[in-house]
Amino acid sequence: MHSCSITRRTVHSATHTANDKAGQVFECSLNKQDIKRYSRQLMLDSIEDKGQAKLTRSHAVVIGLGGLGSLVARYLAGAGVGTLTLVDGDTVDISNLQRQVTYNEMHLGELKAKSLYNELRKVNSRLNIKFKSLYADSKNLPTLISTADCVLDCTDNIETRKHINTATLRASIPLFIAAASGLSWQALNLPQNNKRIGCYACLVEHVDVREDCLSKGVLGPVVGMAACHQATQALLFLAKGFSANIKWGHYLTGKADLGSLKSFMLPPSSTCEVCHDPN
Questions:
Q1: Domain range spanning residue 21?
Q2: Selected catalytic residue, list 213, 228, 272, 275
């Protein structure tokens, strides 16, 4: 096993410690196989060796394993997030295969959480991947997310999203939300520890969020666009923490047909029963 230090274009094999910007000292523990596996992202300033080491030590919880969650989890596993918890109580249906690209006809009727677990183990058998074949709710969420560094909400149910928002806010765990319907997709990064930024409950209080592909339909690649954005934001955060160059509290809407992006800052609502602090 060899530790490493990565520059943009050169790989050095050497044991060393590194200091991050906050002054924290940690040992880089990437071996030769890691260097080869993650070589493309190690060249990025937003990842590098220190960020990759943080990814290896990170725990992400993915809730909802449909078109969004199954693809998000695949990208997190591919990037080397050390611990993944997959949460969904649904089974694979033939109607899913149009957009839920991680599954195929061999998975029909199987529990999504278990099927995805088996597929991700083929990507990287060294990761600590756990699956929970259940639906997230207000009772089980505190336990499901208790050791998470971040949570990715990939569900398609507003009530479940509200429960996830409340749980992450109470635990001060960053939350990455994405959705898709029709030819548009939406995304929102919430730090869940900043009183100047609203929460998901603030959003639904003022914005008509229609996140239901059953009634509006959805084109498969549009779901993929949302998932790619969501996974990217989470990975950058896990690699660099709050110093990552991502936008918090900006509600982003993408139009796949027009190729347009719009966003607005989500302020806290003075009437929000979840995040409003009268003090």
A1: 1-41
A2: 213
